[in-house]
Amino acid sequence: MRAPRRAYRCVGPHHVIAVVQTANHGVAIRTAADFSEWAAAQRAEELKEPFTFVIGMDGALRLAPRRSEHLACASGGRVLGAGEVGFVSEAGRWMVTEVSNQSTGYCPDVTSWPAVAQALDQADLGHPGYFTHPVLFRRCPGCQQHNIVREGHFVCVFCDADLPRRWNVDPNAEDLDTP
């Protein structure tokens, strides 16, 4: 059974919401030409670092500098995926070298990969076909804190309660593929 597409809301620190009003929003990348134009505007040193990305509700990849807040990259809206992504140009074609779902603002599940892959395919960006650095986010049912599961250890770092095996960070997240 395939996991449903999910619309993620911001679940990160509330002080980040104020950043959206003043921050540079992500640049929408829908085609290979969009990406080439965007990449040409970046400094060579910047292209060596991963970038912040979100997949907007329209399915488009949006990119912002690495230390940007995901919420700002998404202009404050819901997303289909979020994380960090790195690129390299090989034989005249841009490729994704690394991609993660590392976003403490949205805490997307690893099941967001299909939305990420579709956006990368739409922009004609070669990619590995999976998150190279998957992150498992869970909300503790006891203390309600957000956790990153490391080495398969599903225990809350704040209160030692057991964490659920399934993604549960935002109980109000909208599954888009359910009737």
Going by helix content, strand content and strand pairing, the class is: alpha+beta
Helix and strand element order: EHEHHEEHEEHEEE
Q: What value does the average pLDDT take? A: 91
DSSP, total strands:
9
State the separation between the terminal residues, measured CA to CA: 16 Å
Strand residue percentage:
15-25%
Strand order of the largest sheet: 2-4-3-5-6
Contiguous low-pLDDT stretches (5 residues minimum) are none
User: What percent of the residues sit in helical stretches (DSSP H or I)?
Assistant: 10-25%
Quaternary state of this entry equals single chain
Number of helices: 5
> What is the alpha-carbon Rg in Å?
16 Å
Would you kindly provide a written description of the structure presented here, covering whatever features stand out?
There is one protein chain. With 179 residues, the chain is of the alpha+beta class. It has one domain (6-135). 20% of the residues lie in helices and 25% in strands. The chain has five helices and nine strands; from the N terminus they run βαβααββαββαβββ. The chain has helices at residues 15-22, 32-40, 44-47, 70-73, 113-122, and strands spanning 6-7, 27-29, 51-56, 61-64, 79-90, 93-99, 136-139, 146-149, 174-175. The strands form three sheets. It has a five-stranded antiparallel beta sheet with strand order 2-4-3-5-6. The protein has a two-stranded antiparallel sheet with strand order 1-9. A hairpin with a 2-residue loop joins strand 5 and strand 6 (93-99). The protein is globular and about 50 Å long.
